[in-house]
Structures are given as C-alpha cells and as structure tokens.
Design goal:
It is a single chain. The protein has 147 residues and is mostly helical. 82% of the residues lie in helices and 0% in strands. The protein contains six helices and no strands. Helix 2 packs across helix 4. It is flat and about 65 Å long.
C-alpha cells in the first residue's frame, strides 16, 4: 500500500507543479495530458489506481488473498501501469518535432529488423507462457521436495 500511495502522491505533485508552471514545456505537458490522446489515459490511470487502492485495502481488512480480490488487484495494477506508460508516451510525443524526426524514421524503416523483432517476440511469448504454466501448477507437498 505504501508504494501505491507514494506513486499517487508523486502523480499529484507532478500535476500540481506542472499546472503552476508557466514554462513552454509545462504547457506542452498539460496539453498532452488533457488533450485528445492523454485525457483518457490520465482518467484510466486515476480510476484504476483508486480501484487498486480500494482492492488492497479490502485484502488487508480480510487478512487473506481471496482469488477474486487478487485478480482485481492484478488487473487494476496492469491497467494503471499501461495507462501511466501511454500517458508518458503521449507527453513525450507531444514534445517532439515530428518534421525533424520524419527523415530519421524513414531511414530506420529501410534498415529492417522486423524479422529479428518477431523472433524475439515469439521467444518472449513462449517464455511468458512457460512461466504462467509453472506458476499455475498446484503446489507440491513439502515431503515430496528434494532435501
């Protein structure tokens, strides 16, 4: 809970500091976070974070990791991380000079690398599946573990 509260406080401090600043970069941050792309992600992050906090409080009050609450905490955690990542990228993209980056992007596209990316994406997908399979197995009794 402490980490979640600290992350929320950091977000609030970031919003307050950037809203009080009159610099051009603060204006770009505000425009990105409240604009068409960023507002939905910012709202998702706040709602998912608040729901996650409520879920962890319920888990703490019950004193047990009920499967439904654990799934809710995991899902809202993923939603919060995804929304924060997308909001950060919206702010980053808003601050870029796309006219300057277009030639570099075209050059990178000609260089290739899609095959290498796809091979490593497939390897990662297999490894994630393997980890999920291992974690989903029922626990073995302590007596069957090697000494």
């Amino acid at each position: 809970l402490g980490g979640l509260v600290l992350a929320g406080a950091s977000f609030v401090a970031y919003v307050v500091i950037s809203s009080r600043s009159s610099s051009a970069s603060a204006g770009a941050v505000r425009a990105a976070a409240t604009g068409t792309i960023g507002f939905g992600w910012a709202a998702t992050m706040v709602v998912a974070g608040a729901t996650q906090l409520g879920t962890w409080i319920a888990i703490r009050r019950r004193g047990t990791l009920a499967p439904g609450l654990l799934r809710a905490a995991t899902g809202t955690s993923l939603a919060t991380i995804l929304a924060a990542t997308c909001l950060r990228e919206a702010i980053r993209v808003q601050s870029m000079d796309m006219d300057q980056l277009a030639p570099l992007h075209a050059h990178s596209a000609r260089m290739g690398g899609l095959v290498v990316f796809l091979v490593f994406a497939a390897i990662n997908a297999v490894l994630v599946g393997w980890c999920i399979r291992i974690a989903s197995r029922p626990a073995r009794p302590a007596s069957s573990l090697p000494a």
